[in-house]
Amino acid sequence: MSESNEITLPLFSLLADVRITAQHGPADVSVRALTLNSRQAAPGFVFFALRGAATDGHQFIAKAVEQGASVVVCEDLPATLSPGTAYVQVPDSAEAMAHMAAAFYGHPSRSLQLIGVTGTNGKTTCATLLHKLLRELGYHTGLLSTVQNQIDELVIPATHTTPDAIRLNELLARMVEAGCTHACMEVSSHAVVQHRTTALRFAGGIFTNLTHDHLDYHGTFDNYLKAKKGFFDQLPKTAFALSNADDKRGMVMLQNTPARRETYSLRSAATFRAKLIENAVHGLHLEVDGHDTQFRLIGVFNAYNLLAVYGAAVLLGEEPLEVLTVLSGLLSAPGRFEPVVSEKSRVTGIVDYAHTPDALENVLQTIADIRQPSQQVITVVGCGGNRDGAKRPIMAGLACQGSDRVVLTSDNPRFEDPNDILQQMQAGVKVQDLAKVLTIPDRREAIKTAVALAGPGDIVLVAGKGHETYQEIKGVKTDFDDKKVLTDMFDLLGK
Ligand SMILES: CC(=O)N[C@H]1[C@@H](OP(=O)(O)OP(=O)(O)OC[C@H]2O[C@@H](n3ccc(=O)[nH]c3=O)[C@H](O)[C@@H]2O)O[C@H](CO)[C@@H](O)[C@@H]1O[C@H](C)C(=O)N[C@@H](C)C(=O)N[C@H](CCC(=O)O)C(=O)O
Ligand SMILES: Nc1ncnc2c1ncn2[C@@H]1O[C@H](COP(=O)(O)OP(=O)(O)OP(=O)(O)O)[C@@H](O)[C@H]1O
Ligand SMILES: N[C@H](CCC[C@H](N)C(=O)O)C(=O)O
Ligand SMILES: [Mg+2]
């Protein structure tokens, strides 16, 4: 729902870019807000009937009209039309909503240098780093990310990685109003399929990588790839499309884009090149486009994130050396390879948002790269409920492969039985690894056990929830913060 009470616009002014099948009812309607939820509909509102994953918004048209909605945008008209209501029939309600939301909020993306980041992993890291970088370079900048939304330093809580088209345009309009010249945002695959970003004008797009995730939603890997590629296909000619040349799908992403094609790579010829000199516990040492630079982020995967952000900033017209100087001082996004160290026992906790096989593998590889041979690695990991089930055994297998001990536990079980999820994870544990695995459904107990198992100097990786400060069980979110639980357990166990 719109939070603004000030704007009132004639319906026709919102329809310029909308494909319309038919229009019924009054034409001279004033619109003061947009909603996709019938429960929020009221006089002056446009209600969009969307076909969702769980239910069909068309079922709630009567309810929205009963509550006073002035306009209904739908794909199928209801059998009876209410005389005082305007009905706009369209081939795709989500697409219509994207165009109408952009128009309602005055096309805020056109007043910003808007950069979108897509890919399986690294979106939050890249969008957050670019936001921090642009801030340090002196720009007023907005951020839309999984962790939080921001207008400069003002934090606005996020519910989605990419908000719905109404909320998204409303947030961009607030950024413009606050004087922002730039905005960085994550573009999830769900967002592309649901047209959340359809009517936005991007100045640039970044592709990080594509690996296994969200097959529950997209059905096949090919559909998942098409969703990500759809973002690049929709970029305007004026934008840049910056892709990871080292990723198997990096070039496919650029295949049909009208945007200017640019690449980054650690291994081959590309617009932006980096060479890995050292990946150490104190940070990465890279040579970027010939400039020797030390960074505070750890892990080869972060070399890719840093290079992508560097490339995007240079494509936005920033001075390469100045960009590198600022980037070298930045820390990562919250909950991404974040250390929680016990001074007493020198046990190092690492909280990381690795919730996909590739992310988990990368994080464990990073730990392997920087650990001393004497340090044991104990991994606590689970998989979210009501999400891609195929990744569960794979992630358990990878945890075993990269750790000395593994505690399988719950992530956000949502509406699934945690024991079912854990059974599916256990299926990925090889017989020879069984002895190193414990299964403890209660996440707090699991972290406690991992800390108890840790000897002086050992590493406890707590993966999957990163910055999240809740655990979602049967629709209820209760406070849960991996970082805090780790600290509590260090105290409780005198470590
Ligand atoms: C699977 C998915 O993407 N779901 C999103 C989708 O909901 P849905 O399709 O399930 O909606 P639905 O419940 O079937 O309802 C259909 C329509 O009927 C409407 N309705 C329903 C009931 C009613 O009484 N009245 C009414 O009007 C609903 O408002 C909706 O418009 O549209 C909703 C409105 O935009 C989103 O809030 C919702 O996100 C859910 C909560 C979600 O968990 N989404 C995740 C998977 C997601 O989007 N994740 C990506 C990041 C993924 C990643 O890359 O890691 C993200 O961008 O956040
Ligand atoms: N470039 C990368 N390649 C592979 N793994 C990465 C990369 N960057 C980060 N990761 C891993 O993936 C995890 C998630 O990173 P990040 O939050 O930046 O990704 P995301 O794409 O925003 O994820 P989400 O889709 O959940 O929003 C990190 O905690 C880290 O383990
Ligand atoms: N954006 C991802 C986040 C997953 C985080 C993990 N902790 C989980 O709950 O599965 C999703 O909605 O699938
Ligand atoms: Mg994210």
From TrEMBL:
GO biological process: cell division; cell wall organization; peptidoglycan biosynthetic process; regulation of cell shape
Binding site for UDP-N-acetyl-alpha-D-muramoyl-L-alanyl-D-glutamate: L36, S38, T161, T162, S188, Q194, R196
Pathway membership, UniProt: Cell wall biogenesis; peptidoglycan biosynthesis
Domain Mur ligase N-terminal catalytic: residue ranges: 32-105
UniProt GO MF annotations: ATP binding; magnesium ion binding; tetrahydrofolylpolyglutamate synthase activity; UDP-N-acetylmuramoylalanyl-D-glutamate-2,6-diaminopimelate ligase activity
EC primary class: ligase
Name this polypeptide is given: UDP-N-acetylmuramoyl-L-alanyl-D-glutamate--2,6-diaminopimelate ligase
Organism, as annotated: Hymenobacter psychrotolerans DSM 18569
Gene: murE
